[in-house]
Predict the structure.
Amino acid sequence: MQRHKVIFHVDELGKWKLVLKNVSNLLEAVDINKCSIEILANSEAVKFYVSNFNSDINVMENLNSNGVKFVACNNALIANKIKKEDLNYFIEVVPVGVLELVIKQSEGYAYIKP
């Protein structure tokens, strides 16, 4: 059984709508049970994960309930003075975002940066 593995990388706040639409479109095209999707935010894009900042929380919660993993770079959180407790509840934090990209690509994840 072919399993699709994809990591979306977003580092600009202005790219979030496009990323969420790309992921939604992908989920419509594949069997959710045969797909692993992660969205990694670093740089200024981590601001989108702050619960009182985000107007697309419903879209994100729906994607998360369909198995999409949302990840934030801890270095970017520190640089943007964001505390982990200020993030939406389903956001996972990794120590170094670029290392997460390296790991996922070495595991065969397709890399997409809208």
Notes: The chain has four helices and five strands. The chain has a mean pLDDT of 93. The helical segments are 16-29, 57-65, 74-79, 97-106. Residues 70 and 91 are 5 Å apart (CA to CA).
